[in-house]
Amino acid sequence: MGYTINLIGANDEVWRLQHNVLHHSFTNIEAHDDDINAPFFLRFSPNAKINRLHKFQHLYAWFFYGLSTISWITTKDFIRLKRYYKMGLIKDKKTYRLGLMKIILWKLVYYSYALILPLAMSGFGVGMVILAFLALHFVTGLTISLVFQSAHVVSDASFPLPNKQGNMEDERLAHQLATTCNFSPNSKVLSWLVGGLTNQIEHHLFPHISHIHYKKLAPIVERTSKEFGLPYHKNGNFLSAISKHFKMLYLLGRMELPTVKK
């Protein structure tokens, strides 16, 4: 099923490294979690450098969220494939070149059916087809950005750093509890729409378990977390989660780089 991401203009190998390896292993750790490694005009971590533009990011971030999948189907996969090769996550040059070729070929397949065929056969004008294509991606980009950002870039979540030896204070499961938030825990409809990602905590704790079991796992995880004095963050609904993300963007735009003990 993971390979089907190629059919919507992305790349399965880049996604595996970005999401499964980096994000799930180093959640909310500056310079390691690629989900919070933002361009210079966005700041998603209190440990990231701050500049004057960030003061307004709570106003303009939403527009760039809408452009995120446009970036994904054009430049993002190429940039990250090269980055992961330099990081050593891709073992050799032959594998890198093969990955690059696959990205190009799959993107050609995607553009062929998602853009070229509608232009040639739909009967709509060029401008209308391109506008529909861009609108599709803007809605998709905004939606998936809000789902992921509302689970990690909120005031409840932690943004820990390693010590001088490069070790984290918490072990893996405690780290996931500290850096992840659920939202809309009682909404079956929203859970179905986003593939169980309303239960982000369970998604991070049990990545090999089907999301259809998250709802039953959640009360057990919450009780166990409280039993051992560990956090279990959740927001009542999606709107409250988005509101917390908005406030976090505002705070991050005004927050100076903190002094972190190592």
UniProtKB/TrEMBL annotation:
GO MF annotation: an example: oxidoreductase activity, acting on paired donors, with oxidation of a pair of donors resulting in the reduction of molecular oxygen to two molecules of water
Domain of life: Bacteria
GO CC entries: membrane
Pfam families referenced in this protein's UniProt entry, alphabetically: FA_desaturase
Residue intervals passing through the bilayer: 59-79, 100-120, 126-148
GO BP of this protein: lipid biosynthetic process
Alphabetical keyword list: Membrane, Transmembrane, Transmembrane helix
InterPro entries: FA_desaturase_dom, Fatty_acid_desaturase
Record domain Fatty acid desaturase: where: 7-234
Protein name: Linoleoyl-CoA desaturase
